[in-house]
Task: inverse folding
């Protein structure tokens, strides 16, 4: 693997990575839902909300940041550098058409955690590492109700990525207990999920089962 990234690798960038959703984790339940996922062993929480007011998003982000930090869990904001800065989040996750990686690093600082969506494109991941990303994400790997039109990636991409980059790799898209093992075996450091945790009746147990699967 290459060693082009000078950023420090956070040991929490492994395991279960959960993403919030306006429908599955509504404003009146989001803190409780995330707390249950944390109790179930998740390592990273990403706050993703494209519809709430700026004031509401800031309030939620601050509360979730405090919750995550008090439990030793990384708190990442989806595609909003200003919100990540104001809330004191550990970092940000950006996509192909989102904020600029270098700009995010300059604003959030050298110690911030920056993740980049690379879809099914290995070259995007190689470039992201060279630019200082802390981790990359590939997917969707399976059918997803959250993003049904997202580009499809193959598990082999995870194996190939680990031959060319040294930063952690996350897999996302329709992942559940029944199909996760193949992605883990292919080289995923993190499994990023929404419905497989937050759409379940018992969030803590759902998170714990996925966490145990990854650790085993």
Result:
């Amino acid at each position: 693997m290459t060693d082009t990234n000078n950023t420090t690798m956070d040991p929490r960038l492994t395991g279960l990575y959960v993403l919030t959703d306006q429908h599955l984790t509504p404003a009146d339940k989001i803190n409780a839902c995330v707390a249950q996922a944390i109790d179930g062993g998740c390592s990273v929480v990403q706050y993703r909300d494209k519809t709430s007011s700026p004031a509401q998003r800031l309030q939620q982000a601050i509360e979730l940041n405090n919750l995550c930090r008090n439990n030793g869990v990384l708190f990442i904001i989806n595609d909003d550098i200003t919100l990540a800065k104001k809330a004191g989040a550990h970092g940000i996750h950006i996509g192909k058409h989102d904020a600029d990686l270098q700009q995010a690093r300059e604003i959030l600082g050298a110690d911030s955690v920056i993740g980049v969506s690379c879809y099914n494109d290995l070259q995007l991941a190689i470039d992201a590492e060279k630019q200082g990303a802390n981790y990359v994400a590939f997917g969707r790997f399976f059918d997803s109700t959250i993003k049904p039109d997202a580009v499809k990636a193959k598990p082999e991409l995870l194996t190939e990525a680990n031959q060319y980059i040294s930063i952690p790799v996350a897999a996302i898209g329709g992942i559940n207990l029944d199909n996760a093992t193949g992605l883990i075996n292919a080289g995923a450091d993190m499994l990023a999920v929404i419905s497989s945790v937050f759409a379940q009746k018992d969030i803590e147990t759902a998170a714990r089962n996925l966490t145990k699967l990854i650790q085993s």
Q: What stands out?
A: The mean pLDDT is 93. The two ends are 24 Å apart (CA to CA).
